[in-house]
Amino acid sequence: RTALIVDDDKMNGQLLSTMVQRGGLVPHTASSGEEALQIAASILPDIVILDIKMPDMDGYEVCRRLREDPNTAETPVILVTASGYQLDPKDVAEAGAQDFMVKPIRVKALLEKLEEYLS
Q1: pLDDT, tens digit, for every residue of 69-96?
Q2: Alpha-carbon dihedral of residues 97, 102, 103, 106, nearest 10 degrees?
Q3: What is the pTM of this model?
């Protein structure tokens, strides 16, 4: 199983990669929305962990585009955001994401979500 981790902050991407490996997944990383869409189309990940705030294309738009592609339309997406960011659960649902998490992300909490969406 594979996880696509999308975060423009390299350290966050590495941290999330380590976490998903602990959950038995092979991580693939992208640092922009466009790169994420290209990688998703080529590897068809089992789950996507997607930062909301990115410079080129925000996580909501990336999620909407994943939903438009029949190959990734059903792929679970967990949006991730920094604490303090005004997150509206309605926006999460409208983008087509299954869930969201607020940084800093606890390993146990992420592993529980991976189990929930991949079992």
Answers
A1: 999 999 999 999 986 667 788 888 999 9
A2: -90
A3: 0.95
